[in-house]
Amino acid sequence: MNLQQPFARSLVTVRTWPFFIDMGVALCALAAFFVVVSTGVYWLGRPVPVVPISNSIGALPLYAFYSIVRMTIAYLLSLAFAITYGYLAAYNPRIEPWMVAALDILQSIPVLSFLPPVVLAMVALIPGHQLGIELGVILLIFTGQVWNLAFSFYTSLKTIPREMIEASRIYRYSAWQRFWQLEMPYAAIGLVWNSIVSVAGGWFALIACEMGPIGTHYFIQLPGLGSYLQTSSAAGDIRAMVAGFAAIILIVVATDQLIWRPLIAWSDKFKFEQVESADRVKSPVLELLRKSKLFSTLPGHVAHRIEEPIYHRLAQTRECRVVRPLDAGPSGKNSITLWVLAAALAIAVIWAAVQALFMLSTITWPDLRLLFEGAAATFLRVNAALLISAAWTIPVGVAIGFNPKIARVVQPLAQVMASIPATAFFPILLIGLVSIGGGLGIGSIALMLLGTQWYILFNVIAGAMSIPSDLREVATLYRFTRWQRWTRLILPGIFPYLITGMVTASGGAWNASVFAEYSHLKDRTLETIGLGAQIDAATESGRFPMLLLATIMISLMVITMNRLVWRRLYRLAETRFKLEG
Asked: Tell me, which fold does domain 20-35+56-327+339-575 have in CATH?
C-alpha cells in the first residue's frame, strides 16, 4: 500500500500537470487579446501629443504596459524587415553592395536624426487619431532594433556551408522549403542572440523618443517608462529614478526567463555539427511548454494544414523539377523590374539631394567648422569604445559559449545587463561624474561603452556556440596549444559573428553619442564637443539644416569605414572563414 501511494501520486501529477499548463497558455492568449483590444481603443482615440507624466510609483504599471506594447510591435516589425532585407541582399548580387552600404549608414545614424521627420510624417498621414503619434514612436524604436538583426541574418545566409546548399538543390527544395528548412534554422542562433541586443537597443530608443522636442513648435510626451525616467531625472527625483530603473530591471528579468532563455534552449537544436553535443542549453519554461498538449500539437497541426498545399503546388514548378548548378549565375528575368526600381530610386535621390542643397545653403562657416571638429572628436571616441569593448568581450564571450558551467552563471547575468537600456544608466553615471567634478570629455567614452559592448559580446557568444562540438573535440584530440586553438579554431569560427558584432557595435556607439555628449541633469546641461552634441542641440532648437549636415557627415564617415574595412572583412568571412566540409 505504501509503495502504491507514490506511484498513484505521480500518475495523478502526470495526468493533471499538462491540464494546468494548457490553462496557463489559454490565459496568456486571453491576456494578449485584452492587450490588443485596450491598445486599439486608446490608439484610435483623439490625439494627445503631450500627456502629463506623474512621478508617482503607482503610475509605473500603466507606463510599463504602454512601453512593452510599443517595444513588442517594434520588435516584430524589425524581425520581419530584417529577414526580408537580409534575404534580398544575400541573393541579389546586383543590388547587394548598395543594400549593405545603406544598412551600414542607417544603423549608424542616431535615432534623434530620425525623430522629427518620422513623427511629423506619421502625424500627417494619420491625422485625428493617437495612432499616428504612436506609430511614429514605434518606428523610431524600430530604427534602434532592426539593423543588427538584418546584419545577422544577411551574414548567416552568406556563410551557409556549400554542401548544405548543394544538398537542398539535389533534393529539389523550393525557395519556400529552403527558407524554412535550411536558411532560417541556420540563422536561428544568431537571430536569437541579436534579438536580445536589439531589444536593448529598442529600450535605448524608447527612452529617447517617448518624450522630447521636435523643433521649436512641437513636443511629444507619451505615457511610458522612457518619459517617466526623463521626467524624474529632470526633476532630480532620485526615488522616482530608482523606482523606474527597478521596473525596467524587473521587466528585463521576466523577459529573460520567459522568452530569451526558452528561445536560446530551443535554437540550440539548430547547431551545425556532425556529432551531438553532450552539453545542451536547458530552460525550465521551455520544458513546461513542451508538456502542454495544446502548445505542442496545435501549432504543428495548423502549420501542416497550411504548408502541405503550398509544398504540393511548389513541387510542380520548374525550380523543383530542374536542378540548377550551384555556380550558375542569377537569371535575368527580373532585370527589367530591377532597372525600373533603380530608375525610380535615382529620381527620388536626385530630388532629395536638390532639396537638401537648398536647406544646407543656410549653414555658416563657423557652423561648418564646429561640425568638422565634432566629427573628428566623435570618430575617435567611437573607435576607442569599439576597441575597449572588443578587448574584453571576445575572451569572455568565448568562455561563455564554450563552458556550460560558466554560461549557467554568467549568461543570465549578461543577458539582463545587456537588456537594460544604456540610457537608463546615463542619469546615474552623470550624477557620479558631476559629484567627482568630471565632465563628458572622457566620461562620454564610458557612456558609449554601454551602447557598444553588448553587440560584440552576444555575437561572439553566438559564434562560439555555433562552432561544432566535433571540431572542438578534434582540437583536444590533437592537443592544440592555447595559441593554436585561438588561431586555428576559435577566431576563424567566430569571425563572421565577430564582424557582425563590430559593425553593429559601431552603429550603437554613434547612436549613443547623442546621449553621451549632451545631457540634461536638473538645471544643468552637460556637453562636450562632438557630432552627437550637435545633433541633440539642433533637434532641441529646431535647426534642421545643422541636423541634416551632421547626419550626412556621419553617413560619409560610415561609408568610408565600410569601403576600407568592413566590406573587406565581410568578404574574408564569406570565403576563407566559411564553415565547409
From this structure: MetI-like fold (1.10.3720)
